[in-house]
Amino acid sequence: MNNGDSGRRVIDGRFRLEARLGGGGMGTVWRATDLALHRNVAVKEVRPPDIDLAEYDPQGARLLRERVLREARALARIDHPNVVTIHHIVDGGEGTYPWIVMELVGGGSLADRLERGPTDPVETARIGREVLAALRAAHDAGIQHRDVKPANVLLRPDGRPVLTDFGIAAIRESTALTATGSIIGTPDYMAPERIAGDDGGPASDLWSLAMMLYAAVEGHHPLRRGTTMATLAAVLYENVPPPRKAGPLADALMRVLVRDPQARPDAGTFDRMLTAVSAGAGVGTSAGVAAAPGEAVADAVPAARTEPTSYRLTPPQDAVPRSPGPAPVRPARRGRRAAVALSAVGTVLVGVLAWTLLPDSEGSGSSASGDSTNGATADPSADTSSTGTADKSPTPRRTERKTPTNLLTPDGIRTAVKALEKETGRDRYGNLTVYPEYVSAQVMVEGSRTGYQQYTYYVGRGVQETPIKAQLAGGAQPMTLDGLAWDRLPALLAEAEKKLNVDDATTRYLVVKSPNDLFDRGAEMLVYLSDEYNRSGYLQADARGKVTRVTPAD
């Protein structure tokens, strides 16, 4: 209903909306006035981007409603000064979307603060301690936050942080609400095990907190890349570079930012490390940490493991990844059929992020240039024997080539494509993404112009099928790869090195984008370079390898 005097919308006859404060994947937050108590409040309007969701996907609409109510109940269970307070829930019942009335935190978010520049190590440690206190209260209540990031840390006018937006919190007794294999959260700050499809635990929230503090004190995110998929790959397979501006905070951050959650310090130990920094005592660089006043914490922190841990990716069945991807369509060969799941709305609604490019490797597999020596060995079937000396009749040598160990080459791509087409019996694609260690492809379902299934080719292990089944969207058209000028790749990489303003690139990859009839665009090849400080640029070329656009790093 509307207030007759102001014309502004009034919710539940009591909360008058004043101004929009922000929005996200699950709705919009408003500054509002509580007309009954004459105070300012924040009201979260939970509404999907698609207002017709309830008509064509009632199950998705119900899931959204249940998730929001779960957020409110989760927050109501936590009584802590660093957790936003819930005042009221407006629930119109089945078929409606609820509103959550919360305390209004007036100092903006940590993301707003960081737009003005990085924080110093002592301030960062202080913020970290208070956010950690909020997380510990949530963990004690059986709740994992799952989306710790600067935008979800609000600041009171005196600078004290308040953790908010538990909308994707995983309450232990309500895990059935999360689709099997779904990945929810902001990819930049997600722990590797959560990206890989594991439920994670309190240690995963600690990773997210440490990554947030790293970005705050350094002024950049160490693993953010040019695309979401590249960022996810970096989180899973690249080591976090040591911070340069963190001073005494550096050791605490690096002890938490290790891939193996079992090797991370627990919340109590992390708190003692942050306390030492915020008190000006510093943190040791050996096995122990400098104690906060009155505490002895030497040898409290386990040594950080440097060897990478690999996780199996279990993506959701109903998420629709973005479809970059290239070339004219010709009839597909016969092959295995794959069912197509058409539930894209789940991704739009609850921020479920599915990604299937990542290899289930025993090594880090993240070297960006040259031959990979970690998880990128020659095909076991290749001939590695030499002529025996005991037998006078020489053994005939095989003439076939060994499997390339660097797939970001013309021969490497041809090898991967040949293996993909042999395994699937199909030769039409959506997008194709090539890293030195693996090639990920959206292979079209036979007889369909939109449905695809994800496959990945790994050096030494061949083709592996993933559970993802989805559709091309946004005008993207299926393509064959026969017309792509793979031999132009070395020249494109060389030109990228000269023109993209990325002097010390740590990541190199190729994205082949399919034709798009909506934008009247043909197949394209995009070469990306990025460095350890997330400076990224790309070079765009047509299917023949002619450069059409150069976008250097800032």
UniProtKB/TrEMBL annotation:
Residues 305-334, 361-414 are annotated as: Disordered. The keyword Glycoprotein does not apply. Residues 361-378 have a biased composition (Low complexity). Its EC number is 2.7.11.1. GO terms for molecular function: ATP binding; protein serine/threonine kinase activity. The keyword Transferase applies. SUPFAM superfamilies: Protein kinase-like (PK-like) (SSF56112). ATP binds at residue 44. It comes from the Bacteria. Residues 15-274 form the Protein kinase domain. Residues 382-392 have a biased composition (Polar residues). Pfam families: Pkinase. Keywords: ATP-binding, Kinase, Nucleotide-binding, Serine/threonine-protein kinase, Transferase. InterPro entries: Kinase-like_dom_sf, Prot_kinase_dom, Protein_kinase_ATP_BS, Ser/Thr_kinase_AS. This is non-specific serine/threonine protein kinase. The lineage of its organism: Bacteria, Bacillati, Actinomycetota, Actinomycetes, Kitasatosporales.
